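Before relying on records like the one below, remember that each one covers exactly one chain. Contacts with other chains, cofactors or solvent are not represented anywhere in the record.
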Amino acid sequence: MDWKLDSRHPIGLFDSGVGGFTVLKELKHILPNEQFIYFGDTRNLPYGDKSPEIIHNWATNSIKFLLRLKVKAIVVACNISSSVLTKEELTAIPVPVFTLIEYGAKRAVEVTRLKKVGVLATMATVQTRSYERVLSSLDNGIEVVQSACPKFVPMIESGKLATKEIEATVREYLTPITESGADAIIYGCSHYPLLSRVIEKYVNGAVLIDPAVEVAKAVKEKLSEIPALRTDPPHPDVFFVSKITENFLSTAKTFLGQDISGHTLEWIVNE
Protein backbone atom coordinates (compact mmCIF):
# COMPACT_ATOMS: atom_id res chain seq x y z
CA MET A 1 0.00 0.00 0.00
CA ASP A 2 1.40 3.36 -1.06
CA TRP A 3 1.19 5.81 1.84
CA LYS A 4 2.52 9.34 1.59
CA LEU A 5 3.73 10.64 4.95
CA ASP A 6 2.78 14.27 5.44
CA SER A 7 4.60 16.23 8.15
CA ARG A 8 1.35 18.06 8.94
CA HIS A 9 -0.44 14.85 9.85
CA PRO A 10 -0.77 13.83 13.52
CA ILE A 11 0.94 11.04 15.44
CA GLY A 12 -1.42 8.37 16.76
CA LEU A 13 -1.15 6.32 19.92
CA PHE A 14 -3.40 3.93 21.80
CA ASP A 15 -3.76 2.20 25.15
CA SER A 16 -6.46 0.54 27.23
CA GLY A 17 -6.99 3.69 29.29
CA VAL A 18 -4.97 6.47 30.97
CA GLY A 19 -1.66 4.57 30.99
CA GLY A 20 -0.77 5.88 27.56
CA PHE A 21 -0.74 9.40 29.03
CA THR A 22 2.75 8.58 30.36
CA VAL A 23 3.83 7.99 26.76
CA LEU A 24 1.97 11.02 25.43
CA LYS A 25 3.61 13.26 28.01
CA GLU A 26 7.10 12.21 26.89
CA LEU A 27 6.17 12.60 23.22
CA LYS A 28 4.81 16.10 23.78
CA HIS A 29 7.94 17.04 25.70
CA ILE A 30 10.34 15.98 22.96
CA LEU A 31 8.06 16.84 20.00
CA PRO A 32 6.30 20.08 21.00
CA ASN A 33 5.20 20.99 17.46
CA GLU A 34 3.34 17.75 16.80
CA GLN A 35 -0.37 17.08 17.03
CA PHE A 36 -1.43 13.79 18.65
CA ILE A 37 -4.49 11.60 18.35
CA TYR A 38 -5.01 9.35 21.36
CA PHE A 39 -7.32 6.37 21.64
CA GLY A 40 -8.11 4.89 25.04
CA ASP A 41 -10.14 1.68 25.03
CA THR A 42 -11.67 2.44 28.42
CA ARG A 43 -14.74 0.31 27.71
CA ASN A 44 -12.66 -2.87 27.72
CA LEU A 45 -10.04 -2.20 30.39
CA PRO A 46 -8.16 -3.72 32.03
CA TYR A 47 -6.40 -5.59 29.20
CA GLY A 48 -4.08 -7.46 31.57
CA ASP A 49 -6.53 -10.26 32.37
CA LYS A 50 -7.69 -10.86 28.79
CA SER A 51 -6.48 -13.56 26.41
CA PRO A 52 -3.72 -12.79 23.87
CA GLU A 53 -6.18 -13.53 21.04
CA ILE A 54 -8.67 -10.93 22.25
CA ILE A 55 -5.96 -8.32 22.85
CA HIS A 56 -4.48 -8.98 19.40
CA ASN A 57 -7.87 -8.33 17.82
CA TRP A 58 -8.33 -5.12 19.78
CA ALA A 59 -4.81 -3.88 19.01
CA THR A 60 -5.31 -4.53 15.30
CA ASN A 61 -8.62 -2.66 15.33
CA SER A 62 -7.04 0.27 17.16
CA ILE A 63 -4.29 0.52 14.56
CA LYS A 64 -6.83 0.43 11.71
CA PHE A 65 -8.82 3.17 13.43
CA LEU A 66 -5.78 5.43 13.73
CA LEU A 67 -4.80 4.80 10.10
CA ARG A 68 -8.25 5.94 8.99
CA LEU A 69 -7.48 9.23 10.74
CA LYS A 70 -4.39 9.71 8.52
CA VAL A 71 -1.70 9.52 11.18
CA LYS A 72 1.94 9.60 10.07
CA ALA A 73 3.20 7.30 12.84
CA ILE A 74 1.70 5.02 15.49
CA VAL A 75 2.92 4.41 19.03
CA VAL A 76 1.57 1.25 20.66
CA ALA A 77 1.38 2.81 24.13
CA CYS A 78 0.36 -0.48 25.73
CA ASN A 79 2.82 -3.23 26.61
CA ILE A 80 0.43 -6.14 26.28
CA SER A 81 -0.69 -4.91 22.86
CA SER A 82 2.98 -4.61 21.90
CA SER A 83 3.61 -8.17 23.01
CA VAL A 84 0.92 -9.78 20.82
CA LEU A 85 1.76 -7.99 17.55
CA THR A 86 4.32 -9.80 15.39
CA LYS A 87 7.24 -8.15 13.60
CA GLU A 88 5.66 -9.15 10.29
CA GLU A 89 2.40 -7.42 11.20
CA LEU A 90 4.17 -4.28 12.37
CA THR A 91 6.32 -4.14 9.22
CA ALA A 92 3.22 -4.39 7.02
CA ILE A 93 1.69 -1.23 8.53
CA PRO A 94 2.20 1.66 6.07
CA VAL A 95 3.50 4.13 8.67
CA PRO A 96 6.30 3.80 11.24
CA VAL A 97 5.15 1.90 14.34
CA PHE A 98 6.86 2.00 17.73
CA THR A 99 6.38 -0.46 20.60
CA LEU A 100 7.32 -0.07 24.25
CA ILE A 101 8.87 -3.49 24.84
CA GLU A 102 11.64 -3.12 22.28
CA TYR A 103 12.90 0.22 23.56
CA GLY A 104 12.44 -0.55 27.24
CA ALA A 105 14.51 -3.72 26.86
CA LYS A 106 17.28 -1.92 24.96
CA ARG A 107 17.62 0.64 27.73
CA ALA A 108 17.67 -2.05 30.43
CA VAL A 109 20.57 -3.80 28.71
CA GLU A 110 22.48 -0.52 28.65
CA VAL A 111 21.81 0.23 32.31
CA THR A 112 22.24 -3.09 34.13
CA ARG A 113 25.67 -3.86 35.55
CA LEU A 114 24.74 -7.07 37.35
CA LYS A 115 22.87 -8.48 34.32
CA LYS A 116 19.72 -8.80 36.42
CA VAL A 117 16.61 -7.03 35.14
CA GLY A 118 13.23 -6.85 36.85
CA VAL A 119 9.97 -6.32 34.98
CA LEU A 120 6.74 -5.04 36.56
CA ALA A 121 3.92 -5.99 34.20
CA THR A 122 0.35 -7.17 33.82
CA MET A 123 -0.42 -10.86 34.09
CA ALA A 124 -0.97 -11.08 30.32
CA THR A 125 2.40 -9.48 29.49
CA VAL A 126 4.20 -11.76 31.95
CA GLN A 127 2.55 -14.81 30.41
CA THR A 128 3.67 -13.88 26.88
CA ARG A 129 7.30 -13.70 28.15
CA SER A 130 7.88 -10.91 25.64
CA TYR A 131 10.37 -9.03 27.77
CA GLU A 132 12.31 -12.23 28.42
CA ARG A 133 12.56 -12.95 24.69
CA VAL A 134 13.63 -9.44 23.71
CA LEU A 135 16.13 -9.07 26.56
CA SER A 136 17.64 -12.49 25.79
CA SER A 137 17.94 -11.58 22.11
CA LEU A 138 19.92 -8.48 23.10
CA ASP A 139 22.06 -10.23 25.75
CA ASN A 140 21.51 -13.91 26.51
CA GLY A 141 23.43 -13.55 29.76
CA ILE A 142 20.76 -11.40 31.38
CA GLU A 143 18.59 -12.87 34.15
CA VAL A 144 15.00 -11.63 33.99
CA VAL A 145 12.73 -11.55 37.04
CA GLN A 146 9.11 -10.71 36.25
CA SER A 147 6.40 -9.74 38.71
CA ALA A 148 2.76 -9.72 37.66
CA CYS A 149 0.82 -6.76 39.11
CA PRO A 150 -2.89 -7.41 38.48
CA LYS A 151 -4.13 -4.85 41.01
CA PHE A 152 -2.23 -1.84 39.64
CA VAL A 153 -4.31 -0.93 36.56
CA PRO A 154 -7.72 -1.14 38.28
CA MET A 155 -6.36 1.03 41.12
CA ILE A 156 -4.95 3.60 38.71
CA GLU A 157 -8.07 3.70 36.56
CA SER A 158 -10.15 4.26 39.70
CA GLY A 159 -7.91 7.19 40.69
CA LYS A 160 -6.46 5.52 43.81
CA LEU A 161 -2.87 6.71 43.58
CA ALA A 162 -1.98 7.53 47.18
CA THR A 163 -3.44 5.07 49.65
CA LYS A 164 -2.14 2.57 52.21
CA GLU A 165 -3.48 -0.15 49.92
CA ILE A 166 -1.26 1.09 47.08
CA GLU A 167 1.79 1.17 49.36
CA ALA A 168 1.19 -2.42 50.50
CA THR A 169 0.55 -3.63 46.97
CA VAL A 170 3.71 -1.98 45.61
CA ARG A 171 5.82 -3.61 48.34
CA GLU A 172 4.23 -6.99 47.59
CA TYR A 173 4.87 -6.84 43.84
CA LEU A 174 8.40 -5.48 44.13
CA THR A 175 9.60 -8.01 46.72
CA PRO A 176 10.56 -10.84 44.30
CA ILE A 177 12.44 -8.37 42.13
CA THR A 178 14.35 -6.61 44.90
CA GLU A 179 15.17 -9.93 46.59
CA SER A 180 16.67 -11.16 43.30
CA GLY A 181 19.17 -8.29 43.37
CA ALA A 182 18.01 -6.76 40.06
CA ASP A 183 19.70 -3.41 39.45
CA ALA A 184 17.36 -2.31 36.63
CA ILE A 185 13.55 -2.46 36.72
CA ILE A 186 11.35 -1.87 33.71
CA TYR A 187 7.88 -0.40 33.90
CA GLY A 188 6.29 -3.18 31.83
CA CYS A 189 2.95 -1.39 31.63
CA SER A 190 2.45 2.24 30.58
CA HIS A 191 0.10 2.77 33.54
CA TYR A 192 2.75 2.06 36.14
CA PRO A 193 4.78 5.31 35.96
CA LEU A 194 1.67 6.97 37.37
CA LEU A 195 2.64 5.20 40.61
CA SER A 196 6.30 6.23 40.37
CA ARG A 197 6.29 8.25 43.61
CA VAL A 198 5.38 5.13 45.55
CA ILE A 199 7.39 2.64 43.50
CA GLU A 200 10.60 4.67 43.84
CA LYS A 201 10.48 4.12 47.61
CA TYR A 202 10.85 0.34 47.30
CA VAL A 203 13.27 -0.33 44.43
CA ASN A 204 16.27 -0.80 46.72
CA GLY A 205 18.60 1.37 44.62
CA ALA A 206 17.69 -0.17 41.24
CA VAL A 207 17.34 2.07 38.17
CA LEU A 208 13.73 2.44 37.04
CA ILE A 209 13.28 2.39 33.27
CA ASP A 210 10.30 4.05 31.64
CA PRO A 211 10.01 2.77 28.04
CA ALA A 212 7.99 5.88 27.18
CA VAL A 213 11.12 8.02 27.40
CA GLU A 214 12.99 5.74 25.00
CA VAL A 215 10.08 5.51 22.56
CA ALA A 216 9.75 9.30 22.39
CA LYS A 217 13.42 9.58 21.41
CA ALA A 218 12.97 6.90 18.74
CA VAL A 219 9.91 8.63 17.24
CA LYS A 220 11.78 11.93 16.96
CA GLU A 221 14.79 10.23 15.39
CA LYS A 222 12.66 8.40 12.81
CA LEU A 223 10.56 11.42 11.83
CA SER A 224 13.71 13.50 11.50
CA GLU A 225 15.19 10.87 9.22
CA ILE A 226 12.16 10.56 6.87
CA PRO A 227 11.82 13.68 7.19
CA ALA A 228 8.30 14.18 8.55
CA LEU A 229 8.68 16.45 11.58
CA ARG A 230 6.08 19.17 11.86
CA THR A 231 7.48 22.71 11.92
CA ASP A 232 4.23 24.68 12.07
CA PRO A 233 2.34 25.19 15.35
CA PRO A 234 0.15 22.12 15.95
CA HIS A 235 -3.61 21.82 16.07
CA PRO A 236 -5.00 20.77 19.47
CA ASP A 237 -4.62 17.10 20.37
CA VAL A 238 -7.70 14.92 19.89
CA PHE A 239 -8.74 12.17 22.30
CA PHE A 240 -11.01 9.24 21.51
CA VAL A 241 -12.26 6.81 24.14
CA SER A 242 -14.60 3.87 23.87
CA LYS A 243 -16.24 5.13 27.08
CA ILE A 244 -15.80 8.57 28.61
CA THR A 245 -14.95 8.33 32.32
CA GLU A 246 -14.37 11.00 34.92
CA ASN A 247 -10.97 9.50 35.77
CA PHE A 248 -9.84 9.74 32.14
CA LEU A 249 -10.64 13.45 32.03
CA SER A 250 -9.30 14.24 35.52
CA THR A 251 -6.04 12.30 34.99
CA ALA A 252 -5.41 14.21 31.78
CA LYS A 253 -5.88 17.45 33.69
CA THR A 254 -3.56 16.54 36.57
CA PHE A 255 -0.92 14.50 34.71
CA LEU A 256 -0.85 16.19 31.29
CA GLY A 257 -1.93 19.62 32.47
CA GLN A 258 -4.67 19.65 29.83
CA ASP A 259 -8.40 20.15 30.07
CA ILE A 260 -9.43 17.70 27.36
CA SER A 261 -13.16 17.70 28.03
CA GLY A 262 -13.78 19.68 24.83
CA HIS A 263 -11.44 17.53 22.75
CA THR A 264 -12.59 14.04 23.79
CA LEU A 265 -14.96 11.97 21.68
CA GLU A 266 -16.57 8.63 22.51
CA TRP A 267 -15.98 6.09 19.76
CA ILE A 268 -16.37 2.31 20.00
CA VAL A 269 -13.51 0.66 18.13
CA ASN A 270 -13.57 -2.78 19.79
CA GLU A 271 -16.87 -4.56 20.34
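The radius of gyration is 18 Å.
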